Amino acid sequence: MSGHSKFANIKMKKEKNDAAKGRIFTVIGREIAVAVKEGGANPESNAKLRDVIAKAKSNNMPNDTIERGIKKAAGNLENVNYVTNVYEGYGPAGTAIIVKTLTDNKNRTAANVRAAFAKGSGNIGTTGCVSYMFDEKGLIVVAKEDTDMSADDMMMFALEAGAEDFSDEEDSYEITTTPEDFSTVREAFEKEGIAMANAEVTMIPQNYVTITDEEDKKKFQRILDLLDVDDDVQDVYTNCEED
Fold this sequence. Notes:
Distance between the termini: 24 Å
Largest sheet: 4 strands, antiparallel
Strand order of the largest sheet: 3-1-2-9
Number of strands: 10
Helix content: 40-55%
Number of helices: 8
Strand content: 15-25%
Shape: globular
């Protein structure tokens, strides 16, 4: 089946230094707080919380840190006032960028996101200006080094669990689902004891753009770097692929 290997690269190449891990844990901590506020602190009855916990584990967040985050959120519901916002815009060479944020200060976040685009010679557009170029899908990535299952067995298991598509890549198996079926498929993998390097609902570009100009590459990376260090930014999606 056709794959979508390029969009997983960012997740598979996450920095491993302590500062990067700390920021990722902060981002996921906010997602835990929102999930608890919306559906309670019991993962068994809160599918969204189960999905966030799976995301936390795929990012190597320790179990005790996850549990502390859930307990803290449960005892602090009145102070959980995070709001989700989505920004869409263009980077150098016509690249499309979607930025999802979770913040307690929309004005601060909007200013920071706009500044990131501006410093990389990009610009924020209107709602829907680039999102039509992406498909929202559930994504599960299984590193080949973490499983003994063959490609055929993995594909059959994924499809029987309700997956929409399967791709056998160089170092990993990539399984896509509809957003609605993501939790069911992810839980099937979890129950089977299959380690997941990545498990979340993401945005997949329908087509990719390659930046060839070196100056444009630097500007584009400048945007990503500024967004990457912003704790309000949850996810960044782009249709740019490496040259």
